[in-house]
Amino acid sequence: MLKRPVCASLVVVAVLAAGAACSDSSSESPEQKASKSASAAAKTVCQDLDKLKQDTDHLRNLDPATTSKNDLQAAVDTVKQDLDNVSASSGELGNATGAAVKAASESVKSVIQGIDSNSTVQTTVNLLKVPLQGLSGTLSTANSALRCTPSS
């Protein structure tokens, strides 16, 4: 007589275990999966925008009197890489926001490409100030539009 309750209990446990194994994330609806994917993509865009803003502000605020050509070149290279990262991840940006970031980014890239390698640090910083200031403001607007939270 004791065998039947034990067997019944084992069957119940087996059914519950099988049900638990089947109820993983595959039971998410396509909408839930798309939402999670979009959320992860938006997080990447926000991180890329934040890094670009920080590096843009750093480059914009370099003091020509204390900055070496090597330090300036490293800062310019960092911003160029950040611009590439934002360009790669910006599929999540809305039309107006994406267009504004792209235009400001292209302005900075254009100035960077036009800088003569023999330019002084002072000249280079002066050439970059206005487009970097515009990009910085555009990035702040994009961060707000995407509801990005600033990193610490």
What can you tell me about this protein's structure?
This protein has helices at 3-22, 30-60, 69-89, 95-114, 121-145. By secondary structure, it is mainly alpha-helical. It is elongated, with a radius of gyration of 26 Å. α4 (95-114) runs antiparallel to α5 (121-145). It is 77% helix and 0% strand. It has five helices and no strands. The model is unreliable at 6-24 (pLDDT under 50).
State the distance separating the first and last CA atoms: 66 Å
Instruction: Round the Cα radius of gyration to an integer and report it.
Output: 26 Å
What is the H-and-E element order? HHHHH
- Stretches where pLDDT falls below 50 for ≥5 residues? 6-24
Q: What class would the helix/strand composition place it in?
A: mainly alpha
Q: Mind summarizing the main beta sheet?
A: none
How many H/I helices?
5
Which bin fits the share of residues in helices? over 70%
Indicate the mean pLDDT: 77
Estimate what percentage of residues fall within beta strands.
Answer: under 5%
Global outline:
elongated
The overall strand count is 0
Question: What is the secondary structure topology, with strand pairs?
Answer:
Elements: H1 3-22, H2 30-60, H3 69-89, H4 95-114, H5 121-145
Helix pairs in contact: 2-3, 2-5, 3-4, 4-5
